[in-house]
Amino acid sequence: MLIRTPVRPLAAAILLGCGAHVANCAVKLPGLLSSHMVLERDRPIHVWGWSDPGEKITVELHGVSRSAVGSDLGTWSVYLPPERAGGPYRLTVSAKNEIILEDVLIGDVWFASGQSNMEMPLKGFPGAPLKDSPQEIAHATQPELRLINFPKKAVDFPQRDTAASWTACTPETAANFSAAAYFFGRELNAHEHVPIGLIDATWGGTPAEAWVSLEAISRDAALMPIFATRAQMMQSQADAQLIAAAERREDEAARQAGKTPPQHPWRPDPASWAPAWLYNGMVAPATPYAIKGVIWYQGESNSRLAFAPMYARIFPALIADWRAQWQEGDFPFLFVQISSFQSNPGEVWPVIREAQRRTLAVSNTAMVVTTDIGDPDNVHPADKQTVGARLALAARALAYRETIEYSGPLFRQAVPQSEGIRVWFDHADRGLTAKGGTLQGFEIAASDGRFVPATARIDGSTVVVSSAQIPDPKYVRYGWANAPAINLFNADGLPASPFTSEDAMPAR
Predict the structure, then answer these.
(1) Domain covering 103-407 assigned CATH 3.40.50.1110 in the classification
(2) How far is C-alpha 216 from the chain's CA centre?
(3) Which of 99, 143, 359, 460 is least surrounded by CB atoms within 10 angstroms?
(4) CA 290 from chain center: how many Å?
């Protein structure tokens, strides 16, 4: 009996990448390895690609060369020794054909990902302008910043390549690049004086589970409800496609009548909601490429009441998954807490913020609070400069080991006292302040968990909270609303994170 071994999808993709006649395959590099790229300093430099099986490939950079032989599947991989920050250099790949990459820099590479608030470019979105956009674009010539923008791709198995390549940072390229990532990179370059490479892998309106690998989801039985809830969501998105088709017909009728088409709400591609599909299409291609760390801004699409409680499990799983996939240890993972937006009663933004705050228990993470620069009437706040600057503060502290304050006050402990309940904070050693006067946004509850508005006052590096309605308080919370009115900062001008002192993660 003849047993045929099926060709796995990944192997098939590799073979198809060289065409039907593998023996005539020219040496090829992934899009992530291109002219103008930044390679991570002080780490072995990974160069890989495709070729004929058995073909010898030689890679040379900065006077050092290494060779490899194409595998039976037509893949090859070499590691060059680590380099200090510098350049520009030329990287040459020699085999039957020769590939020359020019203007290669050695520095630090950061992977920027998430949904629309990370995606929002320097030119802004329709109906959501970026603060000082024309001036920022005009001054975006940054010779030591390099950019690569991954195309949106949702697919059901991990990809090895992406249809993108590195570019210099100019007004033309920066205009369409993540504003938060750009401002982050610009700040880092100014302080660390090394080239910075930024990878933009973003897709607006997408949930966290789409960015986690199927392997990671399958390891945690508690994540299995993802598939049921997202099946419901994708059905609603399929319904939305029918609505969108009707809207297109309405637009065309308006144009034929000489009228301006009406405005319609934006709806993401249903495929972008599928668990693991964005990891497969937009993260997996980057995992062979050494990075310094990740910056992440996402969570709005997980805020629906049915999905929000899962975020406290999904988000730490995503961080652990990406670190495992890159195989670089616990690299810095810096994330932005979702901002202030009225949204609707069906979305619980405080639950997402609390899940993000509690994720700081994961090692080598930092969180940027943005409630003070949000826009209650627009899900895309205009001030991405402050977002980038605060992310850079976190990077300088965690990744570059500078002794600086990088976080606003973070809840540490709450202790009931005769005068109410006293709250201690981390990142408040030099004291606390209430911007604009009286401290706002605190609530307390007895053991029944029913919160009421409370009076709060600063006492050194603590806050004392009380209410005549709650003589025996047990819990305290702060900023527990979609668009909270809050004003607690530390002496370094960084805002406190919303929080609840409840032991269990709240469901709403």
Answers:
(1) yes
(2) 17
(3) 460
(4) 17
Are residues 37 and 101 in contact, defined by beta-carbon separation less than 8 angstroms?
yes
What is the residue whose two structure tokens read 């976080």? 407
- Residue 256 pLDDT: 82
445 exposure class (CB count in 10 Å sphere: 0-12, 13-18, 19+)? buried
The strand pairing partners of 433, in sequence order, are: 489
Q: For residue 258, what is the enclosing H or E element?
A: none
Axis-axis angle for helices 349-358, 311-326 (nearest 10): 40
Q: What is the enclosing helix (H) or strand (E) of 114?
A: strand 98-114
Pairing of strands 293-297, 333-336: parallel
d(CA 288, CA 193): 25
- Phi (first) and psi of residue 147, to 5 degrees: -125, 145
Rounded Cα distance between 428 and 430, Å, is 6
Residue 450 corresponds to which tokens in the numbers above? Answer: 């029913």
User: pLDDT (tens digit, 9 = 90+) per residue, 38-84?
Assistant: 999 999 999 999 999 999 999 999 999 999 999 999 999 999 999 99
User: Helix and strand tally (H, E) in the chain?
Assistant: 11, 23
List the domain boundaries for the chain.
103-407, 410-500
* Structural contact between residues 430 and 474, judged by C-beta atoms closer than 8 angstroms: no
H runs (alpha helix) in 133-224: 133-138, 171-174, 179-192, 214-218
d(CA 63, CA 81): 11
Task: Classify burial at 491, counting beta carbons within 10 Å of its beta carbon; exposed 0-12, middle 13-18, buried 19 or more.
Answer: middle
Lowest mean pLDDT among 175-184, 258-267, 298-307: 258-267
Q: How far apart are CA 294 and CA 166, in angstroms?
A: 18
**Paired strand residues for 79:** 46
Q: Which two tokens stand for residue 307?
A: 């999905």
Length of the chain: 508
Cβ-contact 121, 183 below 8 angstroms: no
What are the angstrom distances between the C-alpha of 220 and each of 203, 217, 301, 304, 434?
25, 6, 21, 22, 42
Return phi, psi of residue 144, to 5°: -100, 10
What percent of the chain stands above pLDDT 70?
Answer: 88
